[in-house]
């Protein structure tokens, strides 16, 4: 049976979607749905039931459909004629290649940023890093992840390359949910924090080659973590069917 948000017989308790305010409605709906996809409330392959989503968010279908067009242009959802909108789902090859591409984009961002970043920007990143550590201590994964991604984003911005920026944003949107999930296990979470410590040290030293290497490996490690989790999930599903 097709997984949807939400089928008519779905209990009102799942998932918990707060009603939206009317101010800045279009941007707010886009950001809200992006966050739900990133945090796994809306899972890959899930169908978006327009009526149910509108009721849950307290909006009309017009802003929802406008938001879905934006998400479709970003590769986060697929709109299928006569079938509706579905959260995009990448296959294993697409995931592997996207992380491979992202590792190169992050590495180039770091190499250029080490040359071009300002002291004020480094200071901002260090403040974000400390806030990220507080979130880790509180087991606040959404808060941690938001600050984590802002750090990566600021490094990319500090590269001062508009073409790199456009490609970076395009590829990264497809990977945000997978990057979020890669921190579910505490040892992986803590290793990522250690790598962020090293990133800041390389930035402060203006060591572009070192920062590029750290960022490249950081993304490849996430790729390997995601692929391992997918293999484990497939194995569990196969064992469940066999049973």
UniProtKB/TrEMBL annotation:
<keyword id="KW-0804">Transcription</keyword>
<dbReference type="InterPro" id="IPR008920">
    <property type="entry name" value="TF_FadR/GntR_C"/>
</dbReference>
<keyword id="KW-0238">DNA-binding</keyword>
<protein>
    <submittedName>
        <fullName>GntR family transcriptional regulator</fullName>
    </submittedName>
</protein>
<feature type="domain" description="HTH gntR-type">
    <location>
        <begin position="23"/>
        <end position="90"/>
    </location>
</feature>
<dbReference type="InterPro" id="IPR036388">
    <property type="entry name" value="WH-like_DNA-bd_sf"/>
</dbReference>
<dbReference type="Pfam" id="PF00392">
    <property type="entry name" value="GntR"/>
</dbReference>
<dbReference type="InterPro" id="IPR036390">
    <property type="entry name" value="WH_DNA-bd_sf"/>
</dbReference>
<dbReference type="InterPro" id="IPR011711">
    <property type="entry name" value="GntR_C"/>
</dbReference>
<keyword id="KW-0805">Transcription regulation</keyword>
<dbReference type="Pfam" id="PF07729">
    <property type="entry name" value="FCD"/>
</dbReference>
<dbReference type="InterPro" id="IPR000524">
    <property type="entry name" value="Tscrpt_reg_HTH_GntR"/>
</dbReference>
């Amino acid at each position: 049976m097709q997984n949807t948000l939400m089928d008519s017989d779905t209990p009102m308790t799942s998932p918990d979607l707060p009603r939206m305010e009317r101010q800045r409605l279009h941007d707010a709906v886009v950001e809200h749905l992006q966050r739900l996809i990133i945090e796994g409330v809306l899972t890959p392959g899930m169908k978006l039931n327009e009526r149910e989503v509108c009721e849950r968010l307290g909006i009309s279908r017009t802003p929802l459909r406008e938001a879905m067009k934006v998400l479709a242009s970003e590769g986060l959802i697929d709109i299928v004629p006569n079938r509706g909108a579905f959260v995009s789902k990448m296959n294993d090859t697409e995931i592997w290649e996207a992380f491979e591409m992202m590792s190169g984009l992050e590495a180039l961002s770091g190499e250029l940023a080490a040359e071009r970043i300002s002291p004020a920007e480094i200071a901002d990143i260090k403040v974000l890093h400390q806030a990220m550590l507080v979130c880790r201590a509180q087991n606040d994964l959404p808060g941690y992840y938001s600050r984590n991604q802002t750090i990566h984003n600021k490094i990319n911005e500090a590269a001062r390359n508009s073409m790199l920026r456009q490609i970076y944003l395009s590829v990264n949107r497809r990977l945000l949910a997978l990057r979020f999930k890669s921190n579910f296990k505490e040892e992986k979470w803590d290793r990522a924090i250690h790598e962020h410590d090293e990133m800041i040290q390389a930035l402060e030293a203006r060591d572009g080659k070192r920062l590029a290497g750290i960022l490249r490996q950081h993304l490849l490690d996430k790729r390997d973590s995601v692929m391992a989790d997918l293999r484990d999930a497939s194995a569990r599903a196969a064992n469940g069917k066999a049973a």
